[in-house]
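Friendly challenge for the regulars: who can give me the structure tokens for this chain first? No prize, just bragging rights.
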Amino acid sequence: MNQKLEFAQRLREAMVAVGLQPRPGVLHNLFNARYWGTSVSFQAVSCWLKGQAIPAQDKLQLLAEILKVEPEVLRYGQAVRQRVQDKRKRWDEALSFQEREMFDAYLNLPVEQRKVVREVILAFALAHEKSKA
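First reply, four minutes later:
Bragging rights claimed.
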């Protein structure tokens, strides 16, 4: 499924979750009553619900507010959010105090010195990968 169709599915599900019928007219009226910019057309809202278009960021934020869902979840889905949270969790759980201290020191280095440190680490990682093969 493509991103536009996936967005449309999440939009319809969010509408149903707050007790709205997933119809363009319903969303069109509700959206334009709260949007401070130029009103969106019925056709634009219809395209959102059919999976033919994804609204711009400002419109997406208002849609999320109206539908009581986080904008990133409405736009990209819960799976993307979960992957980000899993990655953060991995960092939180995997790093020791000494490693966190080292990263803090690294971040305080001037850019040129950070580049050198990065190249050294990547060289070690490449050598390690080759030794495993």
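Residues 79 and 131 are 35 Å apart (CA to CA). The mean pLDDT is 92. Your move, everyone else.
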